[in-house]
Write a structure and sequence with these properties.
It is built from six helices and nine strands. Strands 5-4-3-6-7-9-8 form a seven-stranded mixed β-sheet, sandwiched between helices. Strands 1-2 form a two-stranded antiparallel sheet. Helix 4 runs parallel beside helix 6. The protein has about 180 residues and is of the alpha/beta class. The structure holds S-adenosylmethionine.
């Protein structure tokens, strides 16, 4: 889909081009092993979410920018479990009628200001034992602040709706990003 090599019908997943790929490579306990229902926030043109939909169950992909969304729709054409939604992840009420409830995982990579707020607003979709797999980009919150301070403040907001299970920097693959695994409170 993005020039990645393939073997036996499977596409290589480049952790340098995907926060979730980086989280897998670093050994995060994602809880994803196949067949899960996934809500993916910040799908862009579908690089990562296409991999997710190749092994997961129903995968709802939210993206609000029309240009990448066009490629996302193309990526969804051959994938009958991938459902693109041209929506703003800050207003989940606009897609709540489409996304089934109790999803197993929310994957979030919106790289925009208010990343924790987006995760909190979408917590309503997660099953009680579901997982949030979140990448926080420090520079999207504040280009001048120290990344650690940005991450602490985002985690404080997240804790209002989630229990944090795991955090680790993704710098080996994505500079100044924090990977977070959390579950609803
Ligand atoms: C870093 S890119 C995502 C890359 C993608 N997750 C991947 O690995 O293939 C961030 C994307 O989030 C989208 N985005 C940012 N804020 C959003 C919002 N409020 N609602 C929906 N999409 C948003 C941007 O348009 C952009 O395409």
């Amino acid at each position: 889909m993005y020039g990645e090599p393939t073997a036996d019908g499977w596409r290589a997943w480049d952790p340098g081009r995907s926060k979730l790929g980086g989280m897998f490579e670093l050994g995060f306990q994602t809880g994803l092993s196949g067949g899960e229902t996934v809500l993916y926030l910040g799908a862009a043109s579908g690089t990562t979410v296409s991999h997710v939909a190749d092994f997961a169950g129903p995968t709802y992909a939210v993206e609000f920018a029309p240009r990448p969304a066009r490629d996302l729709v193309e990526a969804a054409e051959p994938r009958d479990r991938l459902f693109p939604l041209l929506k703003d992840a800050r207003t989940p009420t606009r897609y709540a009628h489409v996304v089934e409830s109790d999803v197993d995982a929310i994957v979030q990579d919106v790289a925009t200001r208010g990343q924790a707020e987006v995760a909190v607003r979408n917590a309503r979709f997660l099953a009680d034992d579901g997982r949030l797999l979140l990448a926080i980009k420090a520079r999207s919150e504040d280009v001048t602040a120290a990344p650690e301070a940005v991450f602490e403040s985002a985690l404080d907001r997240l804790r209002e709706a989630y229990e944090i299970l795991e955090t680790r920097r993704l710098d080996r693959f994505h500079e100044d990003h924090l990977g977070v695994v959390a579950t609803p409170k």
